[in-house]
Every structure is written in C-alpha cells, then in structure tokens.
C-alpha cells in the first residue's frame, strides 16, 4: 500500500516541478525582451510630445497613436487646434501618413518617418507646408 501512495506523490511532485519550470521559461523569455525589440515590433504606438515648427514659432502638441498592422489611429491635441482625431493613418516602410481632423481648425495632413527614436516630417494646412518633430513621452 505504501508504494502506490509514494508513486502518486512522486508523480504529482514531478508534474508540479515541470509546470513551474515551463512557466519560469515563459516569463524569462518576456523579461529578457529588450525595449528596442518591443519598439521595433510597434515603433509608433504611444504618447508623443510634438512640436510644429512654423516661421520661427514652435507650437507644442501631443499625439496619441496606435498601430494595428499598418493602420494608424489616434488623437492629437494642442492649445492652437484643440482636440483632433487621426484619419486615414498608415505606417508603411518607416513612413507615417495621416490627416488630423479638428472641430475648430482646418485639417492637417501629416507625413513623416522614424529616425533615432524621433518622428519627424512635414505638415500641410491652411495653404502652407512646414516641419514637425516628436519624441516619445
């Protein structure tokens, strides 16, 4: 009678050890994933501090972007424009394009790319073209 109980305890103990080992390996894989690996998987989702550069003036704004495949969605906000939403957003081959729509401001067409962890490019609105840049918050 002693042998079956001892065997059962051994089997349960071995199963528990193997299960814990598998869980530890799973968590270790994600713990060793570097920031650059996760950023390269999705380099643009998140909150960005933006500066629109126009005729010597710097207008601050915030972009909140979300990448799903190559589709970009999100919001923008600045004191000048108020809140806005991203329309027709795309991220392809390190190129970002979208239009910002606002309730109380003309739409702004955004183009840009990512270099050295910084988004930058051009924007078009109200009949002119100027530069913008953004860093992750």
Would you kindly provide a written description of the structure presented here, covering whatever features stand out?
This protein is of the alpha+beta class and 137 residues long. It folds into 2 domains: 31 residues; 99 residues, Quinohemoprotein amine dehydrogenase alpha subunit, domain 2 (Lipocalin), CATH 2.40.128.120. 27% of the residues lie in helices and 53% in strands. The protein is built from 2 helices and 8 strands, in the order ααββββββββ. An 8-stranded antiparallel barrel has the order 1-2-3-4-5-6-7-8. The longest helix is centred in the N-terminal third of the chain and has 30 residues. It is globular and about 35 Å long. It starts with a helix and ends with a strand. About 23% of the residues have low confidence.
What's the quick description here?
This protein is α+β, with helices and mostly antiparallel strands and 137 residues long.
Q: How many separate structural domains? A: 2
The total count of helices amounts to 2
Strand order of the largest sheet: 1-2-3-4-5-6-7-8
Outline type: globular
| Distance, first to last CA | 66 Å
Number of strands: 8
Could you give the order of the helices and strands? HHEEEEEEEE
CATH superfamily of the largest domain: Quinohemoprotein amine dehydrogenase alpha subunit, domain 2
Give a short account of the largest sheet.
8 strands, antiparallel, barrel
Point out poorly predicted stretches. Answer: 7-38
Radius of gyration: 25 Å
CATH topology of the largest domain: Lipocalin
Tell me what portion of residues adopts beta-strand conformation: over 45%
Average pLDDT: 81
């Amino acid at each position: 009678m002693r042998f079956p109980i001892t065997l059962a305890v051994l089997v349960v103990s071995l199963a528990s050890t193997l299960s814990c080992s598998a869980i530890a390996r799973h968590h270790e894989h994600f713990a060793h994933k570097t920031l650059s690996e996760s950023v390269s998987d999705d380099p643009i989702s998140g909150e960005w501090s933006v500066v629109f550069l126009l005729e010597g003036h710097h207008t601050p704004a915030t972009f909140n972007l979300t990448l799903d495949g190559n589709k970009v969605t999100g919001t923008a906000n600045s004191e000048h424009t108020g809140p806005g939403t991203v329309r027709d957003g795309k991220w392809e081959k390190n190129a970002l394009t979208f239009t910002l729509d606002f309730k109380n401001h003309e739409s702004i067409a955004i183009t840009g790319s990512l270099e050295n962890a910084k988004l930058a490019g051009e924007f078009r609105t109200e009949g002119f073209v100027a530069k913008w840049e953004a860093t992750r918050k």
